[in-house]
Design goal:
Strand order of the largest sheet: 1-2-3-4-5-7-6
Shape: globular
Structural class: alpha+beta
CATH architecture: 3-Layer(aba) Sandwich
CATH superfamily: Gcn5-related N-acetyltransferase (GNAT)
Strand content: 25-35%
Number of strands: 7
CATH class: Alpha Beta
Order of helices and strands: EHHHEEEHEHEE
CATH topology: Aminopeptidase
Length: about 170
């Protein structure tokens, strides 16, 4: 198995972060959503200025996943008040985004990226994390269950004008 090099992202990497964010989001969700809803979401939520704003949040962190010097995925973690939901009595942190390019999936890279997220939280004294996953993203749900995450709630996620349901899953470590 190949091992990832996982490194923090800073504002100088905005172009690459934007590119991998848009590419992985399209790969993951375009086939199950309308073109209009996808375009609206990308323009609003994954625009360069929005990502730049997220990069400047002191309680959010991005990491690139490199395989053989090529960015194949990324991770976004939210701590404290940067989390999207107030859940688990504020004793957990959030994986907001964890994506691997389709061509590199099912090779153990997603697990390595997830383990890095756990290590980061553990080093800061956390004992649990949580994330939201679209109820129709069956492969991601299967992946998270394999990693021992469990569903504990759900919330609404707006993609364009389509209100969707995300399962909230947690991991205790």
């Amino acid at each position: 198995m190949s091992f990832l090099k996982i490194v923090p992202v800073d504002s100088e990497n905005l172009y690459d972060l934007h590119k991998i964010s848009v590419t992985t989001f399209k790969e993951t969700f375009a086939s199950q959503n309308t073109k209009e809803n996808m375009e609206y979401y990308l323009k609003k939520n994954l625009a360069k200025m929005q990502i730049k704003k997220e990069l400047s949040n002191p309680f959010s962190e991005f990491y690139f996943a490199y395989n053989q010097e090529v960015i194949i995925g990324y991770l976004k973690l939210n701590f404290k008040n940067s989390q999207n939901e107030n859940v688990l009595k504020n004793k957990a942190y959030e994986i907001e985004r964890i994506y691997i390019l389709k061509t590199h999936q099912r090779k153990g890279f997603g697990k390595q990226l997830f383990e890095k997220a756990v290590d980061i939280g553990r080093s800061r004294g956390y004992k649990k994390l949580w994330l939201g996953v679209w109820e129709k993203n069956k492969s991601a749900i299967k992946f998270y269950k394999k990693l021992n995450l469990s569903k504990f709630d759900k919330h609404e996620f707006l993609l364009g004008n389509d209100t969707q349901t995300d399962f909230l899953m947690k991991y205790d470590f």
